[in-house]
Amino acid sequence: MKGKFCPKCGATDRPFHGGFCIDCYLKDHPGLAETEDITIKRCTHCLRVKTRGVWESGAPASMGEIVRAHVKTSLESPEVTVELVEPGEKKEVYEVTVKGALGAEPVSLTQLVTVKYEKQTCDVCSRKSGNYYEAILQLRPAGREIDLQRMRSALMFLRNEARAMVKKDRKAEIFRYEMVKNGVDVYFGSARAAKVALQHLQATYRPTVKESYTLKGVDKETGKKRYSVTYSVRL
Predict the structure, then answer these.
(1) For the segment 151-203, what is each residue's pLDDT rounded down to a tens digit?
(2) Which of 138, 128, 134, 129 is nearest to 227 (CA)?
Protein backbone atom coordinates (compact mmCIF):
# COMPACT_ATOMS: atom_id res chain seq x y z
CA MET A 1 0.00 0.00 0.00
CA LYS A 2 3.07 2.28 0.22
CA GLY A 3 2.62 5.49 -1.72
CA LYS A 4 -1.18 5.18 -1.80
CA PHE A 5 -3.52 7.64 -0.15
CA CYS A 6 -7.28 7.94 -0.20
CA PRO A 7 -8.36 11.00 -2.25
CA LYS A 8 -11.46 11.29 -0.08
CA CYS A 9 -10.16 11.02 3.49
CA GLY A 10 -6.38 11.02 3.00
CA ALA A 11 -5.87 7.67 4.71
CA THR A 12 -2.72 5.75 3.83
CA ASP A 13 -2.77 2.91 6.36
CA ARG A 14 -5.83 0.96 5.18
CA PRO A 15 -6.56 -1.54 2.44
CA PHE A 16 -7.55 0.06 -0.86
CA HIS A 17 -10.17 -0.85 -3.44
CA GLY A 18 -11.06 1.03 -6.60
CA GLY A 19 -8.60 3.80 -5.81
CA PHE A 20 -10.11 4.58 -2.39
CA CYS A 21 -9.52 3.22 1.10
CA ILE A 22 -11.82 0.36 1.91
CA ASP A 23 -13.87 2.43 4.39
CA CYS A 24 -14.62 5.22 1.93
CA TYR A 25 -15.33 2.77 -0.84
CA LEU A 26 -17.90 0.97 1.32
CA LYS A 27 -19.54 4.28 2.29
CA ASP A 28 -19.86 5.24 -1.37
CA HIS A 29 -21.19 1.81 -2.37
CA PRO A 30 -23.90 0.90 0.16
CA GLY A 31 -25.47 -1.40 -2.41
CA LEU A 32 -22.74 -3.97 -1.90
CA ALA A 33 -25.03 -5.49 0.72
CA GLU A 34 -28.43 -4.05 1.42
CA THR A 35 -31.88 -5.06 2.58
CA GLU A 36 -34.86 -2.78 2.21
CA ASP A 37 -37.49 -2.55 4.92
CA ILE A 38 -40.13 -5.25 4.50
CA THR A 39 -43.92 -5.08 4.76
CA ILE A 40 -45.62 -8.41 5.30
CA LYS A 41 -49.11 -9.68 6.16
CA ARG A 42 -49.49 -11.36 9.56
CA CYS A 43 -52.53 -13.24 10.87
CA THR A 44 -53.93 -11.58 14.00
CA HIS A 45 -54.98 -14.98 15.41
CA CYS A 46 -52.17 -17.49 14.77
CA LEU A 47 -49.39 -14.95 13.96
CA ARG A 48 -48.43 -16.75 10.77
CA VAL A 49 -47.11 -14.57 7.97
CA LYS A 50 -47.90 -14.64 4.26
CA THR A 51 -44.94 -15.04 1.91
CA ARG A 52 -45.05 -16.03 -1.74
CA GLY A 53 -48.80 -16.44 -1.39
CA VAL A 54 -48.46 -19.03 1.39
CA TRP A 55 -49.13 -18.66 5.12
CA GLU A 56 -46.02 -19.74 7.03
CA SER A 57 -44.78 -19.76 10.60
CA GLY A 58 -43.97 -16.32 11.99
CA ALA A 59 -41.54 -17.70 14.56
CA PRO A 60 -38.24 -15.75 14.91
CA ALA A 61 -36.26 -18.47 13.13
CA SER A 62 -38.69 -18.46 10.20
CA MET A 63 -38.75 -14.67 10.05
CA GLY A 64 -34.94 -14.72 9.99
CA GLU A 65 -35.10 -16.83 6.83
CA ILE A 66 -37.60 -14.43 5.27
CA VAL A 67 -35.40 -11.41 6.02
CA ARG A 68 -32.34 -13.29 4.75
CA ALA A 69 -34.11 -13.95 1.45
CA HIS A 70 -34.45 -10.17 0.94
CA VAL A 71 -30.71 -9.51 1.28
CA LYS A 72 -29.00 -8.35 -1.91
CA THR A 73 -25.22 -8.44 -2.02
CA SER A 74 -22.42 -8.40 -4.58
CA LEU A 75 -19.77 -9.46 -2.06
CA GLU A 76 -17.93 -12.67 -2.84
CA SER A 77 -18.75 -15.78 -0.76
CA PRO A 78 -21.30 -13.95 1.41
CA GLU A 79 -22.44 -15.24 4.79
CA VAL A 80 -25.62 -13.66 6.15
CA THR A 81 -26.76 -13.68 9.77
CA VAL A 82 -30.04 -12.21 11.01
CA GLU A 83 -30.87 -11.38 14.62
CA LEU A 84 -34.09 -10.03 16.09
CA VAL A 85 -33.18 -6.95 18.15
CA GLU A 86 -36.55 -5.29 18.66
CA PRO A 87 -39.65 -7.52 18.80
CA GLY A 88 -43.08 -5.97 18.44
CA GLU A 89 -46.68 -6.47 17.43
CA LYS A 90 -46.86 -3.94 14.58
CA LYS A 91 -43.22 -4.04 13.54
CA GLU A 92 -39.94 -5.75 14.38
CA VAL A 93 -36.35 -4.70 13.86
CA TYR A 94 -33.68 -7.17 12.73
CA GLU A 95 -29.93 -6.71 12.59
CA VAL A 96 -28.54 -8.07 9.33
CA THR A 97 -24.81 -8.78 9.05
CA VAL A 98 -23.23 -9.74 5.73
CA LYS A 99 -19.68 -11.05 5.74
CA GLY A 100 -17.85 -11.62 2.50
CA ALA A 101 -14.93 -10.48 0.39
CA LEU A 102 -14.28 -7.41 -1.73
CA GLY A 103 -11.42 -8.43 -3.93
CA ALA A 104 -8.82 -9.81 -1.53
CA GLU A 105 -10.20 -7.92 1.49
CA PRO A 106 -12.62 -9.44 4.01
CA VAL A 107 -15.65 -7.23 4.59
CA SER A 108 -18.38 -7.18 7.22
CA LEU A 109 -21.44 -4.96 6.75
CA THR A 110 -24.26 -4.52 9.27
CA GLN A 111 -27.58 -2.74 8.99
CA LEU A 112 -30.96 -2.63 10.72
CA VAL A 113 -34.01 -3.79 8.81
CA THR A 114 -37.58 -3.03 9.86
CA VAL A 115 -40.33 -5.56 9.19
CA LYS A 116 -43.78 -3.95 9.28
CA TYR A 117 -46.83 -6.15 9.78
CA GLU A 118 -50.21 -5.68 8.16
CA LYS A 119 -53.07 -7.24 10.08
CA GLN A 120 -55.02 -9.91 8.24
CA THR A 121 -56.76 -13.19 8.98
CA CYS A 122 -55.33 -16.29 7.32
CA ASP A 123 -57.64 -18.64 5.45
CA VAL A 124 -57.55 -21.34 8.13
CA CYS A 125 -58.31 -18.98 11.03
CA SER A 126 -61.05 -17.40 8.93
CA ARG A 127 -62.63 -20.81 8.45
CA LYS A 128 -62.31 -21.64 12.14
CA SER A 129 -63.99 -18.41 13.21
CA GLY A 130 -66.74 -19.03 10.64
CA ASN A 131 -67.54 -22.49 12.07
CA TYR A 132 -66.21 -24.13 8.91
CA TYR A 133 -65.37 -27.83 8.93
CA GLU A 134 -65.15 -30.72 6.46
CA ALA A 135 -65.58 -33.67 8.82
CA ILE A 136 -66.92 -34.60 12.25
CA LEU A 137 -65.86 -37.59 14.28
CA GLN A 138 -68.59 -38.37 16.80
CA LEU A 139 -67.02 -40.39 19.61
CA ARG A 140 -69.68 -42.42 21.40
CA PRO A 141 -69.73 -45.48 23.70
CA ALA A 142 -70.37 -48.85 22.10
CA GLY A 143 -72.91 -49.71 24.83
CA ARG A 144 -75.01 -47.90 27.38
CA GLU A 145 -72.13 -47.29 29.77
CA ILE A 146 -69.42 -44.81 28.92
CA ASP A 147 -65.82 -45.92 29.42
CA LEU A 148 -64.40 -42.49 30.24
CA GLN A 149 -60.80 -43.67 30.20
CA ARG A 150 -61.20 -45.21 26.74
CA MET A 151 -63.00 -42.07 25.50
CA ARG A 152 -60.26 -39.76 26.81
CA SER A 153 -57.56 -41.99 25.38
CA ALA A 154 -59.20 -42.00 21.93
CA LEU A 155 -59.60 -38.22 22.02
CA MET A 156 -55.93 -37.75 22.90
CA PHE A 157 -55.04 -40.15 20.11
CA LEU A 158 -56.92 -37.98 17.59
CA ARG A 159 -55.26 -34.82 18.91
CA ASN A 160 -51.82 -36.31 18.42
CA GLU A 161 -52.69 -37.52 14.92
CA ALA A 162 -53.92 -34.06 13.95
CA ARG A 163 -50.83 -32.35 15.36
CA ALA A 164 -48.59 -34.62 13.30
CA MET A 165 -50.50 -33.90 10.08
CA VAL A 166 -50.69 -30.13 10.67
CA LYS A 167 -46.97 -29.88 9.92
CA LYS A 168 -47.80 -30.56 6.27
CA ASP A 169 -51.42 -29.38 6.06
CA ARG A 170 -52.82 -26.70 8.37
CA LYS A 171 -56.37 -27.69 7.49
CA ALA A 172 -55.64 -30.94 9.30
CA GLU A 173 -56.20 -29.04 12.55
CA ILE A 174 -59.02 -30.02 14.83
CA PHE A 175 -61.05 -26.82 14.59
CA ARG A 176 -63.12 -27.38 17.71
CA TYR A 177 -64.62 -29.88 20.17
CA GLU A 178 -68.20 -30.11 21.37
CA MET A 179 -69.09 -32.08 24.47
CA VAL A 180 -72.43 -33.84 24.21
CA LYS A 181 -74.42 -35.94 26.66
CA ASN A 182 -72.77 -39.26 25.83
CA GLY A 183 -69.54 -38.31 24.12
CA VAL A 184 -67.70 -35.64 22.15
CA ASP A 185 -67.83 -34.32 18.60
CA VAL A 186 -64.45 -33.60 17.00
CA TYR A 187 -64.50 -31.13 14.08
CA PHE A 188 -61.72 -31.41 11.48
CA GLY A 189 -60.86 -28.70 8.96
CA SER A 190 -59.87 -31.36 6.43
CA ALA A 191 -61.92 -34.40 5.42
CA ARG A 192 -58.77 -36.12 4.21
CA ALA A 193 -57.04 -35.59 7.56
CA ALA A 194 -60.11 -36.83 9.43
CA LYS A 195 -60.15 -40.00 7.34
CA VAL A 196 -56.46 -40.68 7.96
CA ALA A 197 -56.84 -40.07 11.70
CA LEU A 198 -59.89 -42.35 11.77
CA GLN A 199 -58.03 -45.15 9.96
CA HIS A 200 -55.27 -44.99 12.56
CA LEU A 201 -57.85 -44.92 15.34
CA GLN A 202 -59.53 -48.02 13.90
CA ALA A 203 -56.24 -49.90 13.83
CA THR A 204 -55.72 -49.23 17.54
CA TYR A 205 -59.22 -49.18 19.10
CA ARG A 206 -61.26 -51.34 16.68
CA PRO A 207 -64.40 -49.19 16.92
CA THR A 208 -67.60 -49.57 14.90
CA VAL A 209 -67.85 -46.78 12.34
CA LYS A 210 -70.71 -45.45 10.23
CA GLU A 211 -70.44 -42.49 7.88
CA SER A 212 -72.90 -40.04 6.37
CA TYR A 213 -72.65 -36.95 4.17
CA THR A 214 -74.28 -33.52 4.32
CA LEU A 215 -74.48 -31.06 1.43
CA LYS A 216 -72.73 -27.83 2.46
CA GLY A 217 -73.10 -25.83 -0.75
CA VAL A 218 -71.40 -25.32 -4.10
CA ASP A 219 -67.77 -24.39 -4.67
CA LYS A 220 -67.73 -20.97 -6.36
CA GLU A 221 -64.56 -21.72 -8.31
CA THR A 222 -65.26 -25.24 -9.55
CA GLY A 223 -69.05 -25.36 -9.43
CA LYS A 224 -68.88 -28.72 -7.66
CA LYS A 225 -71.06 -29.57 -4.70
CA ARG A 226 -69.34 -29.49 -1.31
CA TYR A 227 -70.12 -32.08 1.33
CA SER A 228 -69.10 -32.59 4.91
CA VAL A 229 -68.71 -36.10 6.26
CA THR A 230 -69.80 -37.33 9.68
CA TYR A 231 -68.30 -40.44 11.20
CA SER A 232 -70.19 -42.09 14.03
CA VAL A 233 -67.46 -43.84 16.01
CA ARG A 234 -68.63 -46.35 18.61
CA LEU A 235 -65.88 -47.09 21.11
Answers:
(1) 999 999 999 999 999 888 888 889 999 999 889 999 999 999 999 999 999 99
(2) 134
Report pTM.
Answer: 0.66
Contacts of 188 (CB under 8 A, 6+ apart): 133, 134, 135, 136, 137, 162, 172, 173, 174, 175, 194, 197
Quick check: 1 pLDDT over 60? no
- What gap in Å lies between CA 132 and CA 58, rounded to an integer? 24
- The residue among 194, 179, 182, 180 whose CA lies nearest residue 142 is 182
- Of the candidates 73, 72, 41, 74, which has an alpha carbon nearest to the alpha carbon of residue 58? 41
Q: How far is CA 161 from the centre of its chain?
A: 19
Cα–Cα distances in angstroms (integers) from residue 114 to residues 69, 91, 103, 110, 122, in the given order: 14, 7, 30, 13, 22
Confidence (pLDDT) at 3 = 67
